[in-house]
Amino acid sequence: MKKHLLKFYPVDNGDCTLITLHDGTTILIDCKIREKTETEAGNVVFPVKSDLVKSLKTNSDGAPYVDVFILTHPDQDHCLGFSNHFYNGKSPSNYKDKNKENEEIIIHDLWCTSMLFNEATNDDAKALKKEAERRRKLWRDDDHAKNQDGNRIRMIGYDGDNKFEKLPASVPGDVLSIENINPKSTDKVFEFFVHSPFKDNLVQATAQSDKNFSSIAMQARFKINSFDSQFVGLFLFGGDADHNIWKTVLDKSTKHDNLDKLEWDIFLAPHHCSWTYFNDVPYEDKEDNKVPKESSLEILDYKRPRGRIIASSKAVRSTDKNPPHAQAKTEYQKKLDNNKRFVELALVPSEKEPKPTVYEISATGIIDVRVATAGKIASTSVMSGNWSSGES
Question: How far apart (Å, rounded) are the C-alpha atoms in residues 277 and 49?
Fold first, then answer.
């Protein structure tokens, strides 16, 4: 049976999501790879890197690769570990035995915003910027290698000063089809709809040195067969975008008759279940801050039956500082048919030893699945079961 898989890694406050299509195409949205084996509280840190390597395909030289890596924005909790675990800074033709020994992951196509070039303030973002600059130069020089695996790059969002006019680019309202994701794939069963960032948000992000304003927001859309008229799975995500950005997304979607692009079966709670999705922070600062914005609540109403919300954060507690935020969790749960469909990655299957939460997308829709062993999640190691949320 044909099926796609959507895998959320437990990384505390951070994001790392792997999409595996039924033809083997892989898409990684952000990364957070920690070197420690335990947290300060003594909880096991899941080995994201080793699981990624086992889950990805390898090229003819035995190097693991991902078809697309999407950096929603260059904060460290969205790119931690990039410099050590992804092949960067050089042409893929220079991939050596040492790189293979370190199991460095090659990125066939890198998607980012212009913010990466303006606000790379941590070591991993700087490594990403260097790699993006290398790929950008190939396009600027019209090098014959620019479209080869490991050299491609795509800018997401408007470019205010036309610095990237020669690069492939997609703006809000665009659809990115499988040809844009994996040129070798002929099975048209997946696409992205681009929601943000908008030009004004990128300008604001640069002016205020706030990378959250520049977050990429997209709807991922799954089919089983290319001739299907309906999408069997919809995944909506937006990095650390706050309520202002989501209001713009809602307004633009309404204006352009794109409200169906806001529908979701799975919604990744922005900014690690932060209150910023609902209103300004600090939450306690004034009474107005404690009232969720109608636009944020309306987007949650585009939930399809049995919709789930994912909190990629630490375990949500009332005593914790934002993010995560206990009242945000409460507001999310109000919109769900069952509280168990609010999934805290830090608690699956236990807080002491969290493991990835995985969903299988097939002709029957989205169901929870169970990974019996680490590794290729598209293989027979995937078994039906209420592993992630306890509620299918």
Answer: 29
pLDDT at 392 over 50: no
Cis omega (within 30 of 0) on the bond before 324? yes
CA separation for the pair 176, 20 (Å, rounded): 16
Q: What is the largest distance, in Å, between two alpha-carbon atoms of the chain?
A: 60
Dihedral, CA atoms, 224, 228, 234, 235, nearest 10 degrees?
50
Question: For the chain, first and last CA: distance in Å?
Answer: 19
In angstroms, what CA-CA distances link 253 with 177, 196, 224, 257, 382?
Answer: 19, 11, 26, 6, 36
Beta strands in 274-334 (DSSP E): 303-311
With a threshold of 0.85, does the pTM exceed it? yes
Phi-psi region at 69: left, alpha or beta (left = phi > 0; alpha = psi -120 to 50): beta
Contacts of 179 (CB under 8 A, 6+ apart): 185
Q: What is the mean pLDDT of residues 271-277?
A: 97
pLDDT 10s digits, 251-262: 999 999 999 999
Which tokens in the block code for residue 240? Answer: 């650390």
Three-class SS of 105-138: EEEEEEEECCHHHHCCCCHHHHHHHHHHHHHHHH
Q: What is the CA radius of gyration of the chain?
A: 20
| Residue tagged 């070798």 (tokens) | 184
Q: What is the pLDDT of residue 203?
A: 57
Condensed to tens digits (0 to 9), the pLDDT of residues 210-235 reads 566 789 999 999 999 999 999 999 99
Domain ranges of the chain: 4-384
d(CA 335, CA 309): 10
The set of residues, in sequence order, having a beta carbon less than 8 Å from that of 379 and lying 6+ positions away, is none
CA 279 to chain CA centroid, Å, is 22
Euclidean distance between CA atoms 160 and 118, whole angstroms: 12
Least confidently predicted of 34-38, 332-336, 379-383: 379-383
- Name the residue among 356, 388, 364 with its Cα closest to residue 19: 356
* Architecture of the domain spanning 4-384: 4-Layer Sandwich (3.60)
For residues 171 and 127, the answer to whether their CB atoms sit within 8 Å is no
